[in-house]
Amino acid sequence: MSTYDLSQFATAGHTLFGNHLARDGLVLHDTDDLVAKMLASFGDIDLERLWERVRSLARLLTLPREEQHAKLDGFVRHARYVLRTATYARAFRPGPPCFSVTELAERFDDPALAQLLSSHPEVHGPPTTEVLADLHGRIEQLIGWIEPIGFDSLTDVIIEFDDTDLGDSAILVLGNNDGSPYTIIPRVIL
């Protein structure tokens, strides 16, 4: 169960987040039908913008291997997030939207996707360099070559790069290794 306020809904138009809420959300309380009206107004996903953001966020995966290995847990979480988003977007090509990793694995005839994309540590297992390489390779299969970010560390990205989403993502990758989900980024990025 998740809760959202109206300010989070205000930015959900044309996003995966908004589409997922409109399709699968169950409203438990909506005094003046404000939520129902907002859900009805979200519209189709801007797939071009979505793929642009996926390509942008994937750029963190071009930081040096030493940096990736030093913060392996954060990089694996980030790569899983980017791949999950790209896979959701890919699901729009052959059919209706899909937000279930199990359904995605079936749709794309790739049983490993269900485990790999799961957001639950007990399902996807511990972060390893092999898992990161698999995630990275799968992202490249979906989006092609990943443009290098041109920095040597997450700290450099946070301090010097002029992209708030990438900076926020770099902060999450640095994280505190407590397994926290992506909660400090506003819920609507993609």
Q: Could you tell me how far the N terminus lies from the C terminus, measured between alpha carbons in angstroms? A: 20 Å
Question: Helicity, in percent?
Answer: 55-70%
What profile does the largest beta sheet have? none
**How many E-type strands?**
0
Instruction: Provide the low-confidence segments as ranges.
Output: 177-190
The average pLDDT score comes to: 85
Sheet-strand content, in percent, reads: under 5%
What letter string, H or E per element, gives the SSE order? HHHHHHHHHHHH
Domain module count? 2
**What structural category arises from helix and sheet content?**
mainly alpha
Shape call: globular
Radius of gyration: 17 Å
The DSSP helix count reads: 12
Quick synopsis:
Helix content is 57%, strand content 0%. It has helices at 6-10, 16-24, 34-41, 47-58, 65-70, 72-90, 101-107, 112-117, 121-124, 129-143, 154-160, 164-174.
Walk me through this protein's architecture.
This protein is mostly helical and 190 residues long. The chain folds into two domains: 36 residues, no CATH class; 127 residues, no CATH class. Helix content is 57%, strand content 0%. It has twelve helices and no strands. α6 crosses α12 and α11 runs antiparallel to α12.
Give the helix/strand layout:
Layout: H1 6-10, H2 16-24, H3 34-41, H4 47-58, H5 65-70, H6 72-90, H7 101-107, H8 112-117, H9 121-124, H10 129-143, H11 154-160, H12 164-174
Helix pairs in contact: 4-6, 6-10, 6-12, 11-12
Key traits:
190 residues, mainly alpha, 2 domains, disordered C terminus
